[in-house]
Amino acid sequence: MHDDADSAHDRAWRDGHLLVVPSHACIDDLCFTCGAPPTTAHPQRIYWHRPAWYLLLLLSPLVYLLITPAVRRRAELIVGLCARHTAARLTQRRAGWLLIGLAAALLKVAAMLGAVRLMLLTPLVLLAGVTLLTRAGRIVRVRSIDHATARIANGSPRLRAGLPDLHAPYRQ
Ligand SMILES: [Zn+2]
Questions:
Q1: Most CB within 10 Å of its CB: which of 49, 91, 149, 171?
Q2: How far is the CA of 52 from the centre of ligand 1 (A)?
Q3: How much distance in Å is there from the Cα of 172 to the middle of ligand 1?
């Protein structure tokens, strides 16, 4: 299908509301999030595997961890962000690290005071921090990676505007 990765660089399609791009592509002519002129570029390495592989988790998380590197597919994308969304991402990342630091401090204080309830709070604060960091790191959300293309579920509608639809009767 579309596994001509070199010339696929500037090829993109729409598949309903999904943006279809080569799995190694540069999407930095617009802010990925809002479509405004970008000021920064961000590499995104994304892994995806067929959802059925999650069933392995029921068998054993260890087996899942051993098998998924062999069956997962990778996309390497570079996306642009405008000044506003670059700043928002930085704020999110700082808040994430702050919460992780707070969790460590809470644990220390709780241990010193022997306060069990306070100690129980630390995993929640840690989880909130890790969630923020993960969200700051993950700009692009893919639905699937297949045939050297990535199907992207989020991002500005302006990225999809004017693109040929994969299922249209006449393709450009
Ligand atoms: Zn933006």
A1: 149
A2: 34
A3: 28
Distance 140 CA to ligand 1 centre (A): 13
The CA 156 to ligand 1 mean position distance, Å, reads 8
Amino acid letter, residue 93: R
pLDDT digits (tens, 9 = 90+) for 1-23: 344 433 334 588 898 889 999 99
Q: What is the pLDDT of residues 22-51, one digit of tens each?
A: 999 999 999 999 999 999 999 999 999 999
Q: 120 C-alpha to center of ligand 1: Å?
A: 38
* pLDDT value for 169: 60
Query: Measured between alpha carbons, how far is 72 from 23 in angstroms, rounded to an integer?
Result: 13
Q: Say what the pLDDT of residue 168 is.
A: 67
Token pair belonging to 118: 């306070």
Q: Give the CA count within 13 Å in the CB-facing half-sphere of 109.
A: 11
pLDDT in tens, 135-148: 999 999 999 998 89
Residue 62 neighbours by CB under 8 Å, 6+ apart: none
E strands, 1-152, where?
13-15, 18-22, 24-31, 40-48, 73-81, 142-146, 149-152
Tokens at 130, concatenated: 């890790």
Three-state DSSP at 87 gives: helix
